[in-house]
Amino acid sequence: MSPTVRAIAIIGSGPAGYTAALYAARANLAPLVFEGSVSSGGALMSTTGVENFPGFPGGIQGPDLMALLRQQAAEFGAELVTEDVVEVDLAPAAKRLRTESGVEYDVQAVIVATGAGYRELGLADERRLTGYGVSWCATCDGAFYKEKEVAVVGGGDSALEEALFLTRFARSVTVVHRRDTLRASAVLQDRARDNPRISFAWNKEIIGLRGQDRLTGVQLADARSGDLSEVPADGLFVAIGHLPRSDLFRDQLELTAGGHIRVQSPTTATSVPGVFACGDVVDALYRQAITAAGSGCAAALDAQRFLAGLETPVAGSGFRPTGTVASRPAEPVRPATEEATMVRGSAVETVTDASFAGEVLDHDKPVLVDFWATWCSACQLMFPALADFAREYEGLIAVKKVDVDESPVTAEKYDIGSMPTLKLFRGGEVVHTIVGAKTKSSLVAELSQFLPARTP
Ligand SMILES: Cc1cc2nc3c(=O)[nH]c(=O)nc-3n(C[C@H](O)[C@H](O)[C@H](O)COP(=O)(O)OP(=O)(O)OC[C@H]3O[C@@H](n4cnc5c(N)ncnc54)[C@H](O)[C@@H]3O)c2cc1C
């Protein structure tokens, strides 16, 4: 056995991953936690108030809750690696994980806690209009729809949460649902029905999106009669469910018909010995932060039992990852509110309405501008990747950021309608636009045709 083998790796950084990390760390297993390169903290990073996580009377902001879970896991010795795992070999005897930067880790046990992503409508224009009216995150993009008309599609808790949140800004919110009853919890249904800004389009399916440069409306078909109609909409928020993030494991772990990882309930054991799964990636039924945290705890205990039964268990600390590149050390844990205001490193400078022309349009090099806001958690999650990108291309390409609330004229001029949006300027003109949080490598890939060649 390689001397660099670690006892346990946890893939994922939502409530399930951090809880598994806390338990494994307290068991002195020094777990490695792969948090994801732009999405550490999981689904709750994109919500506001969480009122149903026990222990927080009065509620807590989603990003603050995740910062606390992360801090608690780190305090007990979990090693946090801000990278995506991109390849796994889950052979029963020895397991190997490879991250985006090419580092390989050998481990004896793996806990999969990769959560679930958003489901798309599958319409032809959905991708084209993403960031131009189509969104999956009201807390990220809702503020762009002040006194506008928006639609939300879906009938579950997420759809009604999105709709209720949007009433803070929008003049009207139409909830489009393909049935005549909602799946959402009774309390949310009551709140939505009592809200004068919310109306419902029952038994309607969205069959098309209107708009060239921006969304102007959605085309509906009646699920019973097939009659066609149209709702004017400046924004469409898609909340039609989640897709378990199990693709990475598809060929190696048994999945359910819905794509969830199959576990030997009530344990978290998967079809491969030494691999455990927890949270929303296994759960088609409850999908709550507390159930994810509970199953994360169970996964860590199951993994502990598995490791104790091995003939040659490795100790939990003092081991180094295999491969040639050292793992990135865990970021110091900061409250989400503080993290919101900073970009690490000095390579990413702030420009404002007043300085934009001089520092961006007249710049002699290409300038990548990150349009962000303090209330946008996805923007904050992307900062480390952006700072890394800026450092790597320093002297060749300038990277600047614009706070859209501080510089509304510039944000409006460039029609920023989703967070984060990055625009590449060359000779004063926009030559490329990227919508949504990206990893450093996907930034490099998307901008490759514009990046100057680097001298070795
Ligand atoms: C808008 C919204 C509001 C919600 N509000 C509430 C609420 O009020 N109360 C409540 O109880 N629940 C709420 N939920 C549900 C709750 O957030 C989820 O049930 C819970 O976060 C699931 O936890 P998880 O750990 O399984 O997965 P997630 O929270 O989804 O975390 C998984 C993490 O793993 C990362 N990951 C995935 N693949 C990899 C990889 N290959 N390498 C590294 N990392 C990877 C992901 O990027 C992600 O960060 C809400 C969900 C949403 C979307």
From TrEMBL:
Q: Which GO terms describe its molecular function?
A: thioredoxin-disulfide reductase (NADPH) activity
Tell me where in this chain the Thioredoxin domain is found: 327-452
Which EC number(s) does the record attach to this protein?
A: 1.8.1.9
Please give the GO cellular component terms listed in this UniProt entry.
cytoplasm
Q: Which cofactor does it need?
A: FAD
Q: Matching PROSITE patterns, A to Z?
A: PYRIDINE_REDOX_2, THIOREDOXIN_2
Which residues, if any, are the signal sequence? Answer: none
Reactions mediated catalytically: [thioredoxin]-dithiol + NADP(+) = [thioredoxin]-disulfide + NADPH + H(+)
Q: Does the keyword Ubl conjugation apply?
A: no
Q: Does the keyword Electron transport apply?
A: yes
Cross-referenced InterPro entries: FAD/NAD-bd_sf, FAD/NAD-binding_dom, Ferredoxin-NADP_redctase_2, Pyr_nucl-diS_OxRdtase_2_AS, Thioredox_Rdtase, Thioredoxin, Thioredoxin-like_sf, Thioredoxin_domain
- Please provide the Gene Ontology terms (biological process) for this protein: removal of superoxide radicals
Q: Which UniProt keywords apply?
A: Disulfide bond, Electron transport, FAD, Flavoprotein, Oxidoreductase, Redox-active center, Transport
The record, for Pfam families, names: Pyr_redox_2, Thioredoxin
Q: Which family does it belong to?
A: Belongs to the class-II pyridine nucleotide-disulfide oxidoreductase family.
Q: How does it assemble?
A: Homodimer.
Descriptive protein name: Thioredoxin reductase
**Organism, as annotated:** Georgenia yuyongxinii
